[in-house]
TrEMBL record:
Record-given protein name: LivG-like protein
Molecular function terms, GO-annotated: ATP binding; ATP hydrolysis activity
Keyword Transport: yes
Gene3D superfamilies associated with the record: P-loop containing nucleotide triphosphate hydrolases
Keyword Protein biosynthesis attributed: no
Species this chain originates from: Pelagibacter ubique (strain HTCC1062)
Length: 236
């Protein structure tokens, strides 16, 4: 079952084609990995899917419903969650409060919203930190909190922007395991990731962007054999 369909998506900023005629599909229950050098248009693609940026051209469908042009709030309420490359937790609120802001969208009952938030905080392995302020967390823990905040709306599709970016090497495997656990729980995932080994390991399909264009799209095996990708990433 197709959960997301992106057709001929384009967006320019001044003279820069940040996304240039991008098309792809995501099958429910799978992970799509998105790779590409800095400035390739990866974060812009997320902004277009989630309504944070208006598209110049093209169409985004979620469960075959056209969601192009809807507001970020509306898109989120339909079941598309996202994390941001630049983390945005409420620094002076506790983890529990941070996640409850999201779970309140789904639960009008405070006890239920709290229980749901605690369940998610436990899922991301931060339960002992639930009463700590977000600013007290390490970068790796803040990444987990960012995932928990996105999960609080109970998304069917979760977009994650560089979850393992900016964290130290020893923190990465735990975050990768968390992404896998999230997939197992039934959430469909699109993840932007710089580390090619991680992308090859976790993705069912991979989309490679460069200068706003789709340069490759296929299974990890297909991508590994793609000349353009080899030149940009896998070469020596
Ligand atoms: P990536 O996430 O792959 O590093 P981005 O999507 O952030 O790339 O950026 C793609 C291009 O679009 C870059 O040249 C960037 O400077 C430009 N861009 C992105 N967002 C904006 C914006 N809001 N205003 C102007 N230019 C932007
Ligand atoms: Mg980016």
């Amino acid at each position: 079952m197709k959960i997301l369909s992106v057709e001929n998506l384009s967006r320019s900023f001044g003279g820069i084609k940040a996304n240039n005629d991008i098309s792809f599909e995501v099958i429910e229950g799978t992970i799509l990995g998105v790779i590409g050098p800095n400035g390739a248009g990866k974060s812009t693609l997320f902004d277009l899917i989630t309504g944070y940026t208006k598209t110049d051209n093209g169409k985004v469908s979620f469960f075959n419903k056209d969601i192009s042009g809807l507001s970020p709030d509306k898109i989120s309420s339909l079941g598309i969650g996202r994390t941001f490359q630049k983390l945005k937790p409420f620094a002076d609120q506790t983890l529990l409060e941070n996640v409850m802001i999201g779970s309140f969208v789904k639960e009008d009952n405070i006890k239920k919203a709290r229980d749901k938030a605690l369940e998610i905080i436990d899922f991301v392995d931060l339960i002992e930190k639930r009463h700590h302020f977000a600013r007290e967390l390490s970068t790796g823990q803040r990444k987990r909190l960012e995932m928990a905040r996105a999960m609080a709306i109970e998304p069917k599709l979760l977009l994650m922007d560089e979850v393992t970016g900016g964290v130290d090497q020893k923190t990465i495997p735990g975050l990768v395991e968390l992404i896998k656990k999230l997939k197992k729980s039934g959430v469909t995932i699109i993840t932007i990731e710089h580390n090619i080994n991680i992308i090859m390991e976790i993705s069912d399909n991979i989309l490679a962007l460069d200068q706003g264009k789709r340069i490759a799209y296929g299974t990890p095996k297909e991508i590994q054999q793609n000349e353009e990708v080899i030149d940009s990433y896998l070469g020596t």
